[in-house]
Design brief:
The protein is of the alpha/beta class. It has 2 domains: 128 residues, Response regulator (Rossmann fold, 3-Layer(aba) Sandwich); 63 residues, Winged helix-like DNA-binding domain superfamily/Winged helix DNA-binding domain (Arc Repressor Mutant, subunit A), CATH 1.10.10. 60% of the residues lie in helices and 14% in strands. It has 10 helices and 7 strands. A 5-stranded parallel β-sheet has the order 2-1-3-6-7, with helices on both faces. Strands 4-5 form a two-stranded antiparallel ribbon. Strand 1, helix 1 and strand 2 form a beta-alpha-beta unit. Helix 2 packs parallel to helix 3 and helix 4 packs across helix 6. The longest helix has 20 residues. The termini are far apart.
Length: 210
């Protein structure tokens, strides 16, 4: 079974490579340290399994997983991470990853996981993904409840589809002040983009309105 490794830490790659190559039925046929070079190496070596670190210096293993699955759907992807992260787990599932494991996993367990994924097994089941989504939703709702009154109002107006300028006019604030509120809200909710907050606010309003 041919394996590709993606990790921006050379020591980690070397350790994984030695571990995998010690098995008679497994072989590392390619490796990369950046998201940029990953797809090119995968194209050249055509592995059965791609083992991808979730956090990279120039991107994300989840993004690489999505690209690999789009270009080579026959290649199974296993996401490797140093910490438990529900957001990354959900994103990995949506990107088409077959598995998601912590780096602290025992050597024999990661080897077995690679074999299972390479055989076409889907280890990221719907129940696990749903549980992660529920935890994310609950933690997000708790964070919204802790927002100061002004930020909570801005969050609600974002959910109504208002722009920063429209929110500023509605709340009699300077547009720059609203922009600062939005930045603070995104940070507290663990979100990167305004559209994420808008979608989340709309879902909360819909659910609570039922």
């Amino acid at each position: 079974m041919k394996v590709f490794l993606l990790d921006d830490h050379e020591v980690v790659r070397r350790g994984l490579k030695d571990l995998i190559n010690s098995e008679p039925d497994l072989e590392v046929v390619g490796e990369a340290g950046t998201a940029e070079e990953a797809l090119e190496v995968v194209s050249a070596c055509q592995p059965n399994v791609a083992v991808l670190d979730v956090r990279l210096g120039d991107g994300s293993g989840v993004e690489v997983c999505r690209d690999i699955r789009s270009a080579y759907p026959e290649i199974s992807c296993l996401i490797l991470t140093s910490f438990e992260d529900d957001q990354a787990l959900v994103e990995a599932s949506l990107a088409g990853a077959a598995g998601y494991v912590l780096k602290k996993i025992k050597s024999n367990e990661i080897l077995q996981t690679i074999r299972l994924v390479g055989e076409g097994r889907q280890l990221l089941d719907r129940a696990t993904t749903r549980l992660a989504l529920r935890r994310l939703r609950e933690s997000g709702e708790a964070a919204v409840g802790e927002l100061p009154q002004q930020e909570r109002r801005v969050f609600e107006l974002i959910g109504d589809g208002l722009s920063n300028r429209e929110i500023a006019e509605a709340m009699f604030l300077a547009e720059k002040t609203v922009k600062n509120y939005v930045t603070s809200i995104l940070r507290k909710l663990g979100m990167q983009r305004r559209t994420e907050a808008a979608a989340f606010a709309a879902r909360l309003e819909e659910r609570h309105g039922q």
